[in-house]
Amino acid sequence: MVKNGTGPYESYYKDGTVKSNGYVKKGEYTGSWKYFYENGRPKEEGHYDSDDDYLVDNFWSRNGDHTLIDGNGLYKSRYDNGKTKYKGEYKNGLKQGEHVNRDEDGLLETKIGYNAGEYDGEFSYYYSSRTMEMKGEYDNGTAVGLWTWYHWNGEKEKEVRYKNGYKDGEMKYWDEDGLLEKVEEYDDGVLQD
Q1: Does some domain include residue 70?
Q2: CA dihedral in degrees (149, 123, 168, 177; nearest 10)?
């Protein structure tokens, strides 16, 4: 039982079945954690390392397939309708390669690249209307290249280039009708007058 922000912690589904358990220290998750499906079967086991990063150790599908073992393998969760909700590979407990989230209809919500748990590669989000919300790129955890955000109707909202993680050059803003509203100039992340 957690007292003063520290102690063993359990969460439950509405029917009283254990959903997760682990340990909390000063209000933060720490140590080993276990997660369960509504039927009581194991879903995921992981732990927090000395840097407070969460590493996935094991994952089981709803039907009991052990697809991620000792931090390596496929993490693939599904909706009750059988469609894929989340899919991505793990290596040594960390996200590796392309990870995607989909909605209950199977349509893309996010596509994010990882290397050893750091953002690396494509980074994109989609509106529920299926239009792109934003798209950019990371290189080993650092934002690089052209980043573009979109209005719900697909028109560009803003666009800027990143260099070594900082805005660099023109940042343009458009209204929902595609008309240019303003332009800002950045130099290594600093807005210029």
Answers
A1: no
A2: -10
Residue 167: how many CB atoms within 10 A of its CB?
Answer: 20
Average model confidence (pLDDT) across the chain: 95
Strands 28-36 and 190-191: unpaired
pLDDT at res. 71: 97
The domain of 37 spans 1-52
Is residue 26 assigned to a domain?
A: yes
Cα–Cα distance between 75 and 189 in angstroms, integer?
Answer: 36
Does residue 10 sit within a domain?
yes
Name the E strands within the chain: 7-12, 18-25, 28-36, 42-48, 54-60, 66-69, 72-78, 84-91, 94-102, 108-115, 118-126, 132-139, 142-150, 156-163, 166-167, 169-174, 180-187, 190-191
Whether the pLDDT of residue 158 is over 80: the answer is yes
Q: How confident is the model at residue 2 (pLDDT cuts 50, 70, 90)?
A: confident
pLDDT at residue 181 in the model: 98
Please report the pLDDT score of residue 32 as a whole number.
96
Q: Is 140 helix (H, G, I), strand (E, B) or coil?
A: coil
For residue 28, is it within any domain? yes
51 with 93: CB under 8 angstroms? no
Written as six digits, the tokens of 21 are 């358990």
pTM, entire model: 0.87
Are the CB atoms for 67 and 74 separated by under 8 Å?
Answer: yes
